[in-house]
Amino acid sequence: MAHSRVHSVNSTSQIPRNHASSHLIHRSQQASRSGYPLRQLQLNERPRQTRPLTSPEAVVLDRPATTAAPEHPDDLTSTSQEPFVWTKQWYAVSIMDALDAKKPNAISLLGKELVVWRDDAGQWVCMDDQCSHRLAPLSEGRLENNNIMCAYHAWSFNSKGDLVDVPQAHFTGEPDGNARACASRRACVAAYPTQVAQEMLFVWPESGAMAALEAANKKPVMSPYMNEQKPYRGENGEPVYTVGKPFQRDQPASWDFLMENLCDPAHFNPSHSEVAGDRRHEFTGMARIEELPEHLKVGALFNGAEGVGGLTTMLAGKGRSVDTSLHHVAMPGVLTQLYRNPKDIPGADFELLQIHLTPTKPGHCRIFVHFYMAGKKLPLPLKIIPRLTPAWIGHLQGLEITDGDNTFLIAQDRKTREIEAQKGLPWSKSYYMPTGADRMIAQMKKWVDTRGGGGPFPNAGPQAPIAKEHALDRLHQHTLTCPSCFAAYRTFRALRVVLAIAAGAFAAASMSTAFISGVAMHVPALFAAASLASSALAMVCNKFVRLLTYKPYEHHRR
């Protein structure tokens, strides 16, 4: 996945000539004047001095990552002696725009099949996606009278999961037949706490009174650099603008391996070349990750959350400069990468990439991507153009970027698990990671193995190989659940048919009028031109249909 900014601003890439530490301290001094969290970064808190960033060799840490996780990772927040409990966390389950408030919506979370729907008060409800009668999916039902109704036998449940109506019980001859049928504890469906933040619906995957209390006392892990509801503001009140619409995709790869991807800035330019990265740049391999002082670690910034982090210096992408970001991955799966005063965007106070990664079931997860830009002096086009651009246009880039990772992640997932199952070798014995560019990966894997109990699905075995067409299936992984992309998909499909028919009709008219006496000579030519134009437009529509369905991704061509 992208670890940098994908919306390029044309500029000449700059190779820093000063020391990385001096550069970061200068950044902290800038932050000090603005009151930003980096304001506390002082010279005596910096890690060792580093070599000048004037050659690709200079970007490697003096200490290698090693294939085994370090004994004392630099940024693991593990002060609690209690195990990390995967079910006692908030998880993003959907972008709000992707939910249909008029019907039930099926989702998956931690191996559970769930249904979310909105009640008459505008509150989102989450329940097990199974009717207590005979386990039919409630997501195939309908919303009526502020309840969710199973479409199989019309049983109805309220927002607490209580059964409120059994139509068949009205005909038993007993005056209280319905009440008796609904009174049983077996009649209920488990309901789960929900909340909305930063245009996403979050679910707490435990039910019951204690779960509701625990959920109420814990906030979702979110970016600490801005508020959670629109209008977005930074710490100093600066306006925060969304760059494009939020993007989500169901990934056919395990949470564990996508988490590695989020901890891996070194892959960005080689893997996403010509999309958002640049593999041909002399600094394409740059991935210097430096230790964080205590007050900038995950636990300090993310309200006690556990995770890993570092100060990352890298080529920020295609057409961009070498720049330094504050890079965190907080559990249960939130990446933030923040560029303070980004070099290539005049007037920007910060630029932020935020990714939520939700484990849905073994071998699968759902990814949520947000880009933000903040500043009172941002150029007007950067404020206006993203708002006017249809979401599906930006989502095409998101699909292209995630395509670039999927083939790697799926194969890596399968091979790593196969080696462990067949040879008993853990990742630390099968991976070879000799440079500091992989330090966050080693730290994250150590956290998963220890604090995380092996991950959300610790007993998951190797996934069966899947064809590339399924790995890069844009239609089912994104388009069908994205209102903007699905509307564009239907429109282009319909236009493709209409234009193909029009092209044929114009061609027929051209040929027929060519042999009719008395018809001006230019008339057949006009019909022929109209036929060609219709054919060309039909081909354009067909291209967009394919872009929203499936597009082969071949790294060797980029």
TrEMBL record:
Domain Rieske: 90-203
A Pfam match: PaO
GO annotation, cellular component aspect: chloroplast; membrane
UniProt region (Disordered), positions on chain: 1-80
Compartments in which it is found: Membrane; Plastid, Chloroplast
GO MF entries: 2 iron, 2 sulfur cluster binding; chlorophyllide a oxygenase activity; metal ion binding
Alphabetically ordered keywords of this record: 2Fe-2S, Chloroplast, Iron, Iron-sulfur, Membrane, Metal-binding, Oxidoreductase, Plastid, Transit peptide, Transmembrane, Transmembrane helix
Listed Polar residues bias regions: 7-33
Family annotation (PROSITE patterns): RIESKE (PS51296)
Transmembrane segments: 497-520, 526-548
Record-given protein name: Rieske domain-containing protein
Native species: Coccomyxa viridis
